[in-house]
Amino acid sequence: MSKITGYAQGTTYNLTFELPADTNVPLSRIEEAVNEELARMDLVLSNYRDDSQIEQFNDQQSTDPVEVDAEMVELVEIARVIHRASNGCYDLTIKPLFDLWGFKNDVFNPPSDDAIAATLANVGLDNLETVDATHLRKKIPNLRIDVSSIGQGYAVERIVKLLEQYGVHNYLVEIGGELKVQGKKINGEAWRIALEKPLPNERKMHKIVSFDSGKPMSLIGSGTYRHFFDDHGKRYSHILDARSGKPVEHNTVSVTILHPDATLGDAWSTAFSCLGSREGLKVANAENLPVLFIDQEGDKFIETESDALKAITGISFKNP
After folding, report:
1. Looking at the predicted structure, is the pLDDT value of residue 205 above 80?
2. Are 93 and 143 in contact (CB under 8 A)?
3. Angle, nearest 10°, between helix axes 148-165 and 70-85?
4. Looking at the whole model, is its pTM more than 0.85?
5. Which end of the chain, N or C, is less packed with Cβ atoms under 10 Å?
6. What is the pLDDT of residues 50-66, one digit of tens each?
7. What whole-number distance in Å separates Cα of residue 293 and Cα of residue 301?
């Protein structure tokens, strides 16, 4: 197996794959192509660099149509579908609320209801119009979009497509914890992925997912157990509900979704973390999505499987 590892988009990436036996392409060329593609996406979609196209769009205080890369429009439209299916809980324009609550600089600052209401006036994906395949238009000048909830999954898909151009069919591509697999290991064994127990200060295995069928599938997780603030005896999640402008208050601490497309899986995992198991299970079943919700009640973890996860074949969840 060949391996490529590195650092990009503010996180790490790990690629494990089998090159075709008849290839004459050196691993260094593939590594160079991977780094070039990640750098290209960063320049278009990164919310952490002022010179990225998405930040230049955000900085424009205009309601005129703006020409953007087709990738931005594509991600906005994918997010729009999930925004509607989640009843507005998932929203790419929510970043001003993160800043308001102090999550941007890890300085927690519970805002007043008036401040939340004022910020919500500049939030809402319905205030972003898709004019055509390469133009977006803000309906309110201060609108900002942040694709971090979908961007890593999209990056996984882009790198998978790049590897496939070199004839790779057996792979595990992981970027920042979001991953996709296809085929088997070189010894014929299935790819196996460990899911963490949703504990804030420990790293223990909760489940082992075995991809026995070899079919392409992404595994995307999201949760509230790593990023939160405690204030006056109350815990505040970093997952914000775009409808209320406030951190979610349900007991769902972890969501794991299986999806053939890592881009969709990434966005859906955030949406389900926002919705929680009670509301999210209804949406998962309506959309026929295989999702595992884990709720915490005291010291106990309660698992809830969607109908599609119960019925899935070729993939197994096992206790360690």
Report:
1. no
2. yes
3. 120
4. yes
5. C
6. 899 999 999 999 999 99
7. 10
Query: What's the pLDDT score for residue 234?
Result: 63
CA-CA distance, 118 to 108, in Å (whole number)? 19
CB 147 within 8 A of CB 74: no
C-alpha separations of 219 from 144, 192, 194, 255 in Å: 28, 11, 11, 11
Of 230, 225, 179, which is closest to residue 204 (Cα–Cα)?
Answer: 225
Q: 199-203, 259-263, 296-300: which range is least confident on average?
A: 199-203
**Is the pLDDT confidence value at 232 over 60?**
no
The single-letter code of the amino acid at 293 is: F
At 1-53, the pLDDT tens digits run 899 999 887 788 999 999 988 888 889 999 999 999 999 999 999 888 889 99
Q: Which of 126, 119, 164 is nearest to 142 (CA)?
A: 119
Q: CA-to-CA distance for 216 and 107, rounded, in angstroms?
A: 40
Contact status, residue 146 vs residue 47, Cβ threshold 8 Å: yes
The whole-angstrom distance between residue 13's C-alpha and the CA centroid of its chain comes to: 14
Cα separation of 98 and 121, whole Å? 14
- Look at residue 73 in the predicted model and tell me its pLDDT: 96
User: In the structure encoding, which two tokens stand for residue 214, read together?
Assistant: 């070899």
Single-letter residue type at 167: G
- Distance separating alpha carbons of residues 316 and 212, to the nearest angstrom: 7
Q: Give the DSSP per-residue string, 201-244.
A: T---EEEEEEE-S---EEEEEEESSSSEEEETTEEEESPEETTT
- Is the Cβ–Cβ distance between 291 and 308 less than 8 Å? yes
CB atoms within 10 A of CB 118: 14
**Alpha-carbon span 129 to 149, nearest angstrom:** 19
Token digits for 162? 């790049």
CA distance 254 to 197: 9
CB 65 within 8 A of CB 135: yes
Q: Does residue 124 have a pLDDT over 60?
A: yes
